[in-house]
Amino acid sequence: MKINKKNLDYFLLISPGLILFSTLIIFPICLTIFYSFFKISFLTNNYDFIGYKNFYKILYKKEFFNSIQIVLVLSIVAVTVSNILGIIFAKLFNHDHKIFLILRILIFTPFILSPIVIGYTFATILTDKGILNQFLSIFFINLEISWLGNPTYALVSVSIALCWQLIAFCTVIYLANLKNIPRELEDAVEIDGANKIQKFRYLDWPLLAPALTINTVVILISTFKLYDRVLALTGGGPGRASETIAMLIIRTAFNENRVGFASSMSLLLLIISGATTFIALVYLGKREVDN
Amino acid sequence: MNILKRLLILLSIVLIPSFGSAKQIELDFMVFETPNLPAEFWDDAIERTVKDFPQFKINKIVPPNVGSMGDYLKQLQATDQFPDVMMSNFAVAEFIEAGLLLPFEDSDLERFADPVGLGLTNGRQYALPMITVVESVIFYNKSMFEAAGITEEPKTWSDLENAASNLKKNNVTPFIVGGAAGDSWAAAWPLMDLVALNVTGKDENYLKDLRNGDRNFSDPLMEDAINAYSSLVKNGWTNSTALSLNYSELQQTFLNGDGAMYPMGSFFAGAVPLDHPFEIGVFPMPALDGTPRLVTYTSGGPAVSALTEYPEEARLFAVEFSTNVKTNADDLFRDAHIPNNKLFDLEKDMAGYELHPLIFEIIEILQTPGLQHVPFFTFEVGDYALLPGLQGEVFSNSQEILSGKETSEIIDNLNSKLIELQ
């Protein structure tokens, strides 16, 4: 590229962003790649080069595959539930009356809350004598479910807390997309005599494809790096029943002092989440073009 | 006023304060806060020490929760924020091995009744033996015992099982145990006692061999200890809420009268109000083979960072903080921590406090002649210390025991982690 004044101006304009991106994203990734070939303890600051050994060890680490399984389950639940409920709420609130404006603001509120706050809030709701079980007992439903103490229900509880926040995000994105559907297309569909289900199937659903892509990708990325909500809600327990990959990585690095091994898991997490996001983008992006 | 006079006044304003005041020494001090030892306790204790030694400026640091103190310290170390002084309420061994803690001099230990406490590493003490906690005690609800026809405190493991069985027949939950999320250490408490009483107390080489890789967790003594905890769950003698309670909720569950027995450290006595509606008693957890043993922890005082800018001053602060009799008295009153300070006089120094009778009972248990004192499992130091990361594994596997996992699975988990860490 020829360096002229115009190019130099462009470069100067993007340089603050570039510096920030390189410092906060590219440099840590490079450092993680570097660390993953070493045996490192931050306590002793010892760096021993061990080549691919860390990656080899992951193959035999049951906990890593357990965490992958947990994250996959959470991803599937979060993508499905948040998208379905997001579309339903968006359709319900897609009206111009003031009351719907208030409802739109309310539905977005969970998204602006800190994940730690959400974790602790749900921990209060879901304890054995918490609000949920007490509320159910008013209607003589004594389920006596230990939402946080039972390994199976602990994952259900994490899913609920996760979806609660993601539904808010999905609703807003779908609402924005619905607002962009041209009025003339809606009129045309109505003149053609389509009922509400047909209108959704043949008009809204295809045109909501960009929102579906954004929501799915954001949900996948959020779920793969899920840490704070789970930490506050179950701490990854009972045992390791709800331990996500991010929690396992932090535990390995700071509890077991194995920074190199944790870095190699981080790198694998980056590859897995990158590949999944890429596949989702390609598949859903193709659907957008087809439509 | 001429210019010379003005200059002299200005100079005197600038110079006099700097001649008059000593150099301020700023130390970062990590403490832990619990329901029994809230922020107010630490602030008062720090203020007391600083009052006598005004050269110190102390910045208090508190970890997110008491169980994660060690992990939090590692994060601080990784980001060059390792505190100068820290209460040693965590497994200190790995920090000593990493050269992050300074050893205390013999002169620093002169004020402590038992200067060795939990143990020495290469003949040196790295964490001041400020307090003694009796770890293997079981608190019990006297009226529930009476109602179930239990007239004597259990002395053997089979006595304990009989008592639990009678309580269960009387529709009472025999044991309150548990610890959710960040409080998995509380779920591990009975297991740590059982292992100390029945494994490390019986076979003094076990931990050394475990560390050297000569043995693993597939050991008959270890299996018995895990089985003993697991049997309480399998017999339906523990509360179903175990894994959804955090530490303060767990404590409150027993205080609410939702169960008859509560295996916890002696510090629980500090949480029992004097006017509590029902009477609470305490007895030592029996060993499986009936040998009189008691799990104790004499340590918990400040440790000093090897990276501190002020090693001498930090050691001075640590010693003064942990041997301040007023702080010792407050600690005993609030958290039933028995002071290990030679200068502390129970009668004289506790004159202003109304102590719960449980605290006297615990001191009596501690002083019972003929008891073999065993260090608390996972907190050992030196050659007896567990490999870094194993403590967390013991904690999370204790939650697995409470969720009904078989002993064989627990042992497999611990063995896999041991291989991974070696």
Describe this structure in words.
The complex is a heterodimer of chains A (291) and B (422). Chain A has two domains: 27 residues, no CATH class; 235 residues, MetI-like (MetI-like fold), CATH 1.10.3720. Chain A is built from 13 helices and two strands. In chain A, strand 1 and strand 2 form a beta hairpin. In chain A, helix 4 crosses helix 7. The radius of gyration of chain A is 23 Å and the shape is globular. The model of chain A has no long low-confidence stretch (mean pLDDT 88). Chain B folds into two domains: 168 residues, Periplasmic binding protein-like II (D-Maltodextrin-Binding Protein, domain 2); 212 residues, D-Maltodextrin-Binding Protein, domain 2, CATH 3.40.190. In chain B, the strands form three sheets. Chain B has a five-stranded mixed beta sheet, covered by helices on one side. A four-stranded mixed beta sheet of chain B has the order 11-5-9-12. In chain B, strands 7-6-8 form a three-stranded antiparallel beta sheet. About 2% of the residues of chain B have low confidence. At the A-B interface, helix 11 and helix 12 of A face helix 3, helix 15 and helix 16 of B.
